[in-house]
Amino acid sequence: MPNSAWKDFETLESYIAKEQSLHPQSRGVFSNLLRRVGLASKVILSKAQQAGLIGVLGQYGKVNVQGEQQMKLDVIANEIMKSTFMWMGHVFGLASEEEEEIIQVERRQPENSEYIILFDPLDGSSNIDANVSVGTIFSIRRRVTNGGRCTLEDFLQEGSKQVAAGYVIYGSSTMFVYTTGNGVHGFTLDPMIGEYILSHENIRIPDRCKCFSANDSNYQKWDEPTREFADYIRYGDDERYKKTTSRYIGSLVADFHRNLLYGGVFMYPADAKTGKGKLRLLYECAPLAMLAEQAGGAATTGRERILDIKPTHLHERVPFIVGNRQEIDLYEKMVREADRS
């Protein structure tokens, strides 16, 4: 690398340390949590890259709490995330999309344990055998109870209570994207030195709708305002959408990441018959909603801001529409008008 290229060379480690230095009272606990996410992601990446060589492609043979077939890498990624945080004294408890109950972290001094961590260890894992991009999503919140063991109350908090959220996407390159409520920042893994390098500081969603991302096979299951919204963007005469293209990967992290960088809207709305969504509020929707808002976008169910939803159970599913604020406002307007008619 030319010497001039090192002038602005900043790693995830140094960036976190710089941010920590802005808060003299900080003890570095929160910074360490972010560093551990970075470490866990490198281990998961190594397993994913070797999947075909070490025999961990395909299904594990069990169904998880979501009623979905677990992939072998789901199980491995889940264990990596658990073992990464289990020993940290300031972690009060964990929750994984792959496990039915909260995960207790036994501590001798639980009063010093401040944070809970929720994660989807390997989002999009059903695509791993086809070499499609997958990812890890995480959310960090502060405990709210005073006992020696965490309870559901610690986890069933509105998304607005998150103190950090982010994801790692494993694709042609590996990127760590996170927010602590002060903008969204992206770091690309340099495989030569094994470090995440700052590549996308203060990400803002471009003010355009370049991509429309939805599973069209569910079109007939959508309610009328949702179909109207989709048709307006894809087939309407609005000049804003003349160059909008349909792009749907089926891996949430990959679809969200593309739209974050290019501009657009992703939607997995409710089934009109059941009124229920598919994506998980705590592990997927709330973390990505925080990122979207910090990047100038928005996220909604159509009737409620995602970050305002008070969860009622650990694996709650909700409709999820996320992207440019202009498109989210349009969708909510169409839903309100349909509700009034």
Secondary-structure element sequence? HHEEHEEEEHEEEEEHEHEEHEEEH
Q: Please estimate the helix content.
A: 25-40%
Distance between the termini: 63 Å
How much is the average pLDDT?
A: 89
* Main sheet characteristics: 8 strands, mixed
| Tally of DSSP helical segments | 8
What structural category do the secondary elements indicate? alpha+beta
Fourth-level CATH superfamily of the largest domain: Fructose-1,6-Bisphosphatase, subunit A, domain 1
CATH class of the largest domain: Alpha Beta
In the predicted model, the low-confidence regions spanning at least 5 consecutive residues are 1-6, 52-61
Count of discrete structural domains: 2
CATH topology of the largest domain, anyone? Fructose-1,6-Bisphosphatase, Chain A, domain 1
Task: Strand order, main sheet: write it out.
Answer: 4-3-5-6-7-8-9-10
CATH architecture of the largest domain: 2-Layer Sandwich
Structure overview:
The protein has helices spanning 12-21, 29-49, 72-86, 152-155, 224-235, 252-262, 281-294, 325-340; strands at residues 59-63, 69-71, 91-96, 103-104, 115-123, 134-142, 162-170, 174-179, 184-190, 195-200, 211-214, 245-246, 264-268, 279-280, 297-300, 317-318, 320-324. Strands 4-3-5-6-7-8-9-10 form an 8-stranded mixed β-sheet, with helices on both faces. Helices cover 30% and strands 25% of the residues. The chain folds into 2 domains: 3-200, 2-Layer Sandwich (Fructose-1,6-Bisphosphatase, Chain A, domain 1), CATH 3.30.540.10; 211-340, D-Maltodextrin-Binding Protein, domain 2, CATH 3.40.190.80. Helix 1 packs antiparallel against helix 2 (29-49), helix 2 packs antiparallel against helix 3 and helix 5 (224-235) packs across helix 8 (325-340). It is α+β, with helices and mostly antiparallel strands and 341 residues long. The protein has 8 helices and 17 strands. Mean pLDDT is 89; it is low at 1-6 and 52-61. A hairpin with a 3-residue loop joins strand 7 (162-170) and strand 8. The longest helix has 21 residues, at 29-49.
